Amino acid sequence: MTQHARRSGPVGRILRVVLGVVMLWWIRPAVDAGGSFLAGAILLAALLFVFYLAAHLALTRSDARPRHAVGVLLAAGPPVAVGVLGMPGGVLFGRGEGIVAALLYIGLSLLVMAARGARGCEVMVVPNLLLRREVSLPCLLFGPIDAWEDRRRRGVEGA
Questions:
Q1: Deepest of 8, 60, 65, 154, by most Cβ within 10 A of its Cβ?
Q2: How is the chain split into domains, by residue range?
């Protein structure tokens, strides 16, 4: 659960920046629209943050560690659920605020993560920063990239 003390490598950082910027660029029309739509999206993004803050506190106060599959569901489930339930015609506001909220939370988290050179799953980076304790969940996309960069670094250092 604890993040490695090592920083992410250049490939992981660049990909996090690119993906974060793409996500934020994609939701730009919603942000430009403003009004109640944007307020709903920000509210849902804040609820995602509160969920991950609570998960952070629970994981740091417990000896229990979720298995990989459970950790992946904990990491990816809430943004997917908010996105699906907040699609146009969905039960959360119903105009697409959930998709914007998920992309906003993850996009900003990816940029913070890249700036910090952090590893692991992006959903935990802001709670980690605020609570000053590193907790990580498995990341399907960046976990393998970080592992590949570790192997690559070890190969270069060992040569």
A1: 8
A2: 10-152
pTM: 0.85
Tokens representing 155? 């190969």
Token pair, residue 34, equals 């403003």
Which residue do the tokens 């506190």 mark? 57
* Tokens 């700036």 found at: 115
Q: Walk along the chain (159 residues) and give the pLDDT tens digit of each residue.
A: 444 447 888 898 999 999 999 999 999 988 787 788 899 999 999 999 999 999 888 888 876 666 667 777 888 889 999 999 988 888 877 888 999 999 999 999 999 999 988 888 888 889 988 988 888 777 888 888 888 888 887 776 655
- HEC letters along the chain: CCCCCCCCCHHHHHHHHHHHHHHHHHCHHHHHHCHHHHHHHHHHHHHHHHHHHHHHHHHHCCCCCCCHHHHHHHHHHHHHHHHHHCCECCCCCCECHHHHHHHHHHHHHHHHHHHHCCCCCHHHHHHHHHHCCCCCCCCCCHHHHHHHHHHHHHHHHHC
Phi, psi of 88 (to 5 degrees): -55, 125
